[in-house]
Structures are given as C-alpha cells and as structure tokens.
Design brief:
Elements lengths: L16 E3 L6 E3 H6 L15 H8 L6 E2 L18 H12 L5 E8 L2 E8 L10 H17 L3 E7 L8 H19 L4 E9 L1 H4 L8 E4 L10 H8 L10 H6 L5 E2 L2 H15 L4 H4 L26 H6 L17 H6 L1
Length: 334
C-alpha cells in the first residue's frame, strides 16, 4: 500500500473577499475595486473614500487641493467613550487625512470646476468646524474664480462632539451658497449613502441640480426615529434616493459609472454662463406667439375688521373648523 503524504491545507490571506450587504453575494475585492466598488451582481454602491472619489471624477492629474493641513482642535474638551482629541488622532492615522473633507480646483472632461468631497470613513463624515470651514472656502473659491462648485456629500450630520460650533456651520455654508448664487454661480449637489442630519438640512439640499446615487439613505432624522415618533409604519423604501426622486426632491439618480459624464454634461450646459446671461434685460418682452395667461381684471383689497363684522355669516355646522390629525399617507398625497 502506497503511503500518501498529507500536507497542511494552505490558508488564504484574509481580506480578499467581501460580502455584499444587499444581495449577500461574496465577491473578490480586486474585482469590486475594478468595478468602482459597485456590486457586480445587484448594483449595490459600496462606500467610496474621498481620494478614490476624486480620482474617479476628475481628469488625470488635474486636482489641485487647497488647505489640506486644516485640523480640528478640541475646544470643548469633549469626552464620550473616549476623549474627542483621541478620536481625531485615531481617524487621522486611519485615513491619512486631517479631516472629513477635501476640496480643490479640478477639471471634469475638460470642464473646470471646484470639487469638494466628503469622506464617511473619517468620524462618519460628520461636519465640525473644520469641515464647515473647508466647504465654505470651496464655495467662496468658486465664487471668486467664477467657476461651478460640486459638493459630493457623505455624512451622518453635524458633529456632536463640537456642540453649537458644529451647528453654526449649517448657517455659514448656506450663507456662502447665497453669495455664490447672487453672483450667478452654479452649485451641483451629489448625495451619496448616507447623507443625513445637519449636512442634509443645510448645503446638501440647496443645489441648483441635485443628483444622488441609487439606494442612498437621504434625510434628516433616521427612519427608526421617525417611525417611533409618528407611531406609524413607514412606506417601503422611505428616505432612499428612489423614494425621494418619486416625490420630487431629486433631479436624477445617477449610477457611479455614469456620474462623471453626467457632471460633465451639466457643466457644459450650465457652467459657462455669466450673471448677465442668466438675467433677462429690463426691456425684454415675450414674443407675440406665446400663450400667456390673462391678467386679472382687478385685485381685491384685504377685508378690514369692520367689513368682516358686517359681512360675517354663520358657519356651516357640518364643516369642521380645523382638523389637526394628519396621517402619513395624507401628507404624501399632498
């Protein structure tokens, strides 16, 4: 009888495979990376870091980053499970970046723009003082250069570790966008999974054009909090990008493979106009063949208190004065 040599089974190195959370198919990581971190089976979009997102969107070697060394200071000496300062150091070591956002000058298929990208891997992409400052600087740079600004959001909201300082960034970023809009500037907001909290309640929702990746969680409070507050079952797909598109909040869903070309087309259509070209001249008149609505014959004045007293009529007893109870279905129907 021949002897057989038994060898120890060779173990494969860890980290080569990843399971899709949507279809639960196991995939080779290198293959997933080649597909821009999009599941080859179901199209689920995995999270993408800020550097990878920038490399995917821009023309090669055209990104000029601004203010990469701005870093956060723990002004409140906040302590949660660990000191806030320790959490910042750990995130810096993990990601190799000073904060949860990068911005700079770039071109997308030859179209110049200011690109600002948030990174969810850095403390959940939360918006603290430095994140708000860098987003504001990106918008102000676009206003100064007369360029469109694109912000790719991926955030859990305002950073609770900085208290009211983080909430102030909501107003600061919105004020910068107002000044950018007053100069005729274009703002394209790209929402990825997730975009929630104070980020969604501020600049992310103010885009002239709002795009989103498929399946992205978008909203202010989370679905569980809303369901517990309303004590009602939420509709299927609530707060997902497909649901928001159906209800008119988004302009278009764009797959990660098509985002670069879509941004290029939008920049080509809208990004090269001056404020004078966007504003109709004072002597402009509509063409005669336009079918315009007729002007009202007269405008009724608002009734005064005396006229209301003399012209008051008894209320219809069958008509309720008010109805303060609204179901979620009724709100959606409106």
């Amino acid at each position: 009888m021949a002897w057989r040599r038994f060898r120890k089974k060779k173990e494969l190195p860890s980290g080569l495979w990843i399971k899709c959370p949507n279809c639960e198919e196991t995939q080779f990581k290198k293959e997933l990376r080649r597909n821009l971190d999009v599941c080859t089976e179901c199209g689920h979009h995995f999270p993408l870091s800020a550097p990878d997102r920038v490399l995917h969107l821009i023309d090669q070697d055209t990104f000029e980053e601004y203010c990469p060394d701005l870093y956060t200071i723990d002004r409140l000496k906040f302590v949660d499970r660990e000191p806030y300062s320790a959490k910042i150091r750990r995130s810096v070591q993990k990601t190799g970046r000073a904060e949860a956002v990068v911005y700079g000058l770039a071109t997308i298929e030859g179209q110049p723009c200011i690109l600002c990208v948030m990174d969810f891997t850095f403390i959940g992409g939360s918006m603290g003082s430095v994140v708000g400052e860098k987003v504001t600087r990106a918008i102000e740079l676009a206003t100064e250069r007369g360029l469109p600004v694109i912000v790719v959001s991926a955030s859990g909201g305002a950073r609770m570790h900085e208290g009211a300082l983080s909430l102030m960034q909501m107003g600061k970023t919105c004020a910068a966008l107002q000044r950018h809009d007053a100069k005729g500037g274009l703002f394209i907001s790209v929402l990825t999974n997730p975009t929630t909290g104070g980020v969604m309640a501020s600049f992310a929702a103010l885009g002239d054009v709002i795009l989103a990746e498929p399946g992205a969680l978008i909203g202010f409070a989370g679905p569980r909090v809303i369901q517990e507050t309303l004590r009602q079952q939420l509709p299927e797909g609530f707060q997902r990008s497909e649901f928001l598109l159906d209800h008119g909040f988004l302009d278009q869903l764009v797959s990660r493979h098509e985002l670069r070309s879509m941004l290029s087309r939008i920049l080509g259509y809208l990004g090269n106009y001056t404020p004078d070209q966007l504003t109709a001249p004072d002597n402009w008149q509509a063409p005669e063949d336009w079918d315009l609505p007729d002007e009202p014959e007269s405008i009724q004045e608002a009734p005064t208190a005396d006229s209301q007293a003399t012209a008051s009529e008894p209320a219809d007893p069958e008509t309720p004065e008010s109805d303060s109870e609204f179901s979620l279905k009724e709100i959606e129907a409106t």
